[in-house]
Amino acid sequence: MAIIRITDQYFWNVVFGLFFLVLLVLAVIILETESFKTVAELTLLDFVLMTLATMRLVRLFVYDTMTKVIREQCYDVVKGEGGMELIKPKVGPRRTLADLLSCPWCFGLWAGASVSFFYLLTPLAFFPVLILAISGVASCLQIVANLTGHKADEQKSKNERGF
Length: 163
Description:
It is a single chain. This protein is mainly alpha-helical. It has one domain (6-161). 71% of the residues lie in helices and 6% in strands. It has helices spanning 6-34, 44-62, 68-72, 93-101, 104-121, 126-161, and strands at residues 76-80, 83-87. The chain has a two-stranded antiparallel ribbon. Strand 1 and strand 2 form a beta hairpin. Helix 1 (6-34) runs parallel beside helix 5 (104-121), helix 2 (44-62) crosses helix 5 and helix 2 crosses helix 6.
């Protein structure tokens, strides 16, 4: 039986980190020559749209059911007491991808870089970014509405019990 060392996973984390860094450098080179808009030309509205689009993209890939099939490809399927269970691999590139797709802060870095790159590269990215931004605002409003409803139900239950 092989002993798995924690440093084995560090290797894959470093590989993915270096891959991200190389992509970032390539993106800067491409944007330097091909972008239709520079960072200096961005308005507050552009930053708000990109931020909301990134937030929605993170939620889509880290939490939403629609992309669960993508996340599941990074996990091992094991037979448990209650049926089949998904667990993260102990080591390897799939473990790094599973960690990435389960961490909103980690995936947010990749999503923010992608949204920024395409937004600056082509005016065609405006429409998908706008849709993601509107969806992000709608998600926030839905969360606020759910919290308000939950608090109202909680208060109603307290009042009915006489507390």
